[in-house]
Amino acid sequence: MNRTQAFIVRMNKAEMQALDKKVKRTGMSREGYVRTLCNNKTPVELPPADYYALIREVRALGNNLHQIAYKANAQGLLDTPLFKHHADNITAVADKLTAVCLPRDNG
Question: What is the pLDDT along the chain (107 residues), one digit of tens a residue?
Fold first, then answer.
């Protein structure tokens, strides 16, 4: 998009610090932050630093469970309902982490 219009907003030091703090939590530029607000959307904060590591761990657990299930099934030892229960629990944990750490955009 070609943005050719600009405006200046004057702030005191405390106001600018408050704006910069909010902008930093989103990972956006000041301009992007203000445009988001002008479009009646709430800027979304970045997830906590350890979010992606936690998601990787949960997904690794799911992969391990699937590998165990593959071997157990090959030997005729798989308890399918129990496996599905645990697999669904792992998926639910990953979904809850995402819901808590990555709030939806309200626009």
Answer: 788 999 899 999 999 999 999 999 999 999 999 999 999 999 988 888 788 888 888 888 888 888 888 888 888 887 788 888 888 888 888 888 877 776 655 54
Residues 6+ apart with CB under 8 A from 97: 51, 54, 55, 58
CA distances to 48, 65, 95 from 55, rounded to whole Å, are 12, 15, 9
Same-domain status, 40 and 80: no
pTM: 0.55
Which range of residues forms the domain containing residue 80?
51-101
DSSP secondary structure string, 25-62?
HHT--HHHHHHHHHTT-PPPPPPPTTHHHHHHHHHHHH
How many domains does the chain fold into?
Answer: 2
